[in-house]
Amino acid sequence: MLDELYQEIILDHYRHPRGRGELEPPKITQEGFNPSCGDEVIIDLRVEDGRISDIRFHGRGCSISQASASMLVEAVKGKTLEEAHQLIEQTLALVKGEVEADYAVHGDLVALAGVRNFPVRVKCATLAWHTLEEALKQASAEAVQET
Amino acid sequence: MLDELYQEIILDHYRHPRGRGELEPPKITQEGFNPSCGDEVIIDLRVEDGRISDIRFHGRGCSISQASASMLVEAVKGKTLEEAHQLIEQTLALVKGEVEADYAVHGDLVALAGVRNFPVRVKCATLAWHTLEEALKQASAEAVQET
Amino acid sequence: MMTTRFTLDAREIRQQFPFFQPHPEMRNLIYLDNAATTQKPYAVIEAVSNFWAYHNANVHRGGHGVGAKASELYEAARGRVARFINARETAEIVFTRGTTESINLVASSWGETFVQPGDELIVTEMEHHANLLPWMRLAEKRGARLVVWHITDSGTLELDQLRKLLSERTRLVAVSHISNVLGVINPVAEICRMAHEAGALCLVDAAQSIAHMPVDVQAIDCDFLAFSGHKAYGPTGIGVLYAKRALLEEMPPYHVGGGMVQTVRWDRLRWAEPPAKFEAGTPPIGEAVGLHAALDFIDSIGREAIAAYEHELTEYALARLQEVPGLRLYGPREGRTGIFAFTLEDIHPHDIATVLDSRDIAVRAGLHCAHPLSERLGGPTARASLAIYNDTDHIDALIDALHYTRKVFGYAG
Amino acid sequence: MMTTRFTLDAREIRQQFPFFQPHPEMRNLIYLDNAATTQKPYAVIEAVSNFWAYHNANVHRGGHGVGAKASELYEAARGRVARFINARETAEIVFTRGTTESINLVASSWGETFVQPGDELIVTEMEHHANLLPWMRLAEKRGARLVVWHITDSGTLELDQLRKLLSERTRLVAVSHISNVLGVINPVAEICRMAHEAGALCLVDAAQSIAHMPVDVQAIDCDFLAFSGHKAYGPTGIGVLYAKRALLEEMPPYHVGGGMVQTVRWDRLRWAEPPAKFEAGTPPIGEAVGLHAALDFIDSIGREAIAAYEHELTEYALARLQEVPGLRLYGPREGRTGIFAFTLEDIHPHDIATVLDSRDIAVRAGLHCAHPLSERLGGPTARASLAIYNDTDHIDALIDALHYTRKVFGYAG
Ligand SMILES: Cc1ncc(COP(=O)(O)O)c(C=O)c1O
Ligand SMILES: Cc1ncc(COP(=O)(O)O)c(C=O)c1O
Question: What's the CATH code, domain D10-40+303-408?
Fold first, then answer.
């Protein structure tokens, strides 16, 4: 069970996070925080032509929360807002065990399914994804204002 | 058990209280109150030459609290403060079951021993006596001031 | 016999309560003090014991599986309460110690923030101190005015009267769903509607209704609702405050401490979201589990069925109480539940209770934590109150014992 | 082996706890999260069940024998607490939900009455939020100043530092007896003496000490002392506020409602005497009975004996923790109890806790409701904390699992 959680892929993302850093303005910034453990994920992103043209994260926390953020950045870069929404839903369902883990569907993200056996860690795995959700709300609100 | 509590003597004092009323000033007045049930006993008394020269009670409440006050008035009238103190102690001990009920010692007050089997009623039986205790404290304080 | 029309078998229900089983060292009591607290079914006692034995851990803080399980059980209890009273979301359920704390929380957090000098708070004359003193104190603290909605001589509230009391200065109407003395069921949905029309909020004290009839916060449309676990077959130490989400959002925290903050810096605090915002410190975890089991117990019988049966029993009791010479019953004849406050000749209520106790019947006597109402009624009363495990035998025993009480005090049979 | 010098047989003590008995559906856990909450002995669980089954009734209100018995049990619990902490009288014991509520009560009732603008409140940097946020909020409400007594780098408090902070404007010093993170035992008697010399009061948060060493309020001479039942082998839903009688006399009530008033007229209120004055509504009756049993359990082992054994175990653990490469332990080496906050290499504390959990060892990870302290320590920590049922086998398993954790995260053995 533990091996499922701390797979090579999680530890690799934790040790060598992809897209860690901040963006220069203009950007959308969203902070995510888990008060019970102090995990923190801040997502910076930029939307151009309805696509996430650039995205970075920073913050601090456990391997699960940070690896999850790293995988997220890798997965959503270049995606349309609609695609990103779908990916969030898919991943939350995966993490919560509502769907089977399937490499064909989820790619590397299947690694996150390992938290299912550790209920206290589900919040760590979902933090980045909930934060992205909020960031996308900001993006939609800005898009509405511009039109 | 119930017969022990609601003896002739209790019901008689309840129906025909001795010394119910108020005194004219100068007097010492002490109010006693049992918040959980609303029993109320107010004692008026006058001390002359170290003796309780006159005493009355009024108030409202259950048969036990009022009969107890009536018996108290009858028992302490004319007693010295010291004797009254002793009587209070004796009666509280009797009511709480710390001493045997003995007609030779307690006289009519033995009737109060019936509450022992009804713990919720002990407070009713002791209310007047605690109130007298407070009244006597006032009396002593006044006596000190006068000297 | 009348017994045939009764829709529930209370004897069978008593089988579910250890309190009513023969016990070598205990008296077998006819328990008619249910408005003070109800007895507890095995299911509740065992749920609590089981929690202590196998699932005990602190909640909401990261670490280990047993803690996650405890959190899950605690939150499941919250969900159960939300479904029980038909709240829109579980975040509207705040766990407290009981009705008293729930109402104090509202008076302190909402009241001291939103009630301004000159504002008015309407309370009814029949309120329990728990739904009275917090408003008296709030009025004093904030320079607001307490407006008393008096009862009619038959012990009911008249909506016309409320109409006259409501004004644009009214901030709140505080009313009990069922009076703990008069047994009357108040038209709380109507009261809430009128309060809202006047721009005021409405708090419903459901301490006496929660276990005896369906309570639906959306149907009532109250802004706040409070009740205690221990009057609903659950343990002490737990109660509920329901409040509409928007109110919980704008209200400041009540207790402050662990679990209700997101960040604490020396110069900056960020509160958690409701309901956590209002639950500082270790909550009553085992008690929440017990309350969950209690609500399951109630629904296993069904609240409609409970209300129907208790109504039948109430009718039976009302008829039989009339047989006792010199008995004066308070509260209305109709629209009421099985809470019977009464006096008997000039026999003091405590003396009545003691005589009944000597006959193994438990009733309560006194002012019932409702001094202004008791004052209005003329003083203390004796009170018998029903629950789902009572039956006509209990009423019959009560009536016999009341006749006996008269005899002890020298009244002719 | 070292085992020979241990003065207690923890295996025998575990026999008294259902949580540690083999159970078909439960994992057999090594429970090292005792600073969060302790497990409950059979004696406590049964005392509570027994109360619900046979003695359940509401307290303090006239009526029947079973109510009198419940009141007697409730007041006996109060007396037991008074003896346990050596209070002068039972009236100095107020029952609350827990430490958090006890301290909130003081901050609200005493604080909002007696703290004036410009006054100072001293809190230590190591306080749990429960003994921090109430004072931050009070300071803000009353225009008082919060003065932080910082810790040394080794995690202790220096009295010289306090001397500098105390002034004639100081109203209160709030300090924990034992830190829930550092495990350090603070010199509370000395701190109270110094506070008193400066004309200030002293509140001691005994949440972490009450079950682990003798606590004597007269010897400490604190003005207020707070603790929770659930950290002392008792149920949730109950805690204690000890306060000197004279303070309780002059403090206004906290919650208002039933049971804490003598008379209620529309124009006049008269409060009851302490402790009733501070216990509005139905109190946690079953929980008080459980706390009573918990204190009996503790004294059946003896607090001196508990302190001695836990000290031995602490020494053993300190020695063994040093064997783990990359482990950093917080708090002092001496003058401490069995609460071990640590980090391990750059492995995040939550990951440590999860690996330990997979090995059936329960520890906690995070900020431990002490954010300012955690900030000072550099972030979250993992925390293992001992109770009377732990033994060297548990420590050994912990050490093994920490080595394993390093391996999982790719550190060389
Ligand atoms: C030192 C200290 N103070 C206060 C508390 C709060 O106790 P409770 O959550 O029982 O109110 C705790 C426990 O979490 C603690 O360790
Ligand atoms: C109508 C009503 N409100 C409030 C309360 C107070 O409930 P608790 O004592 O559980 O806080 C009671 C019970 O005593 C009650 O009957």
Answer: 3.90.1150.10
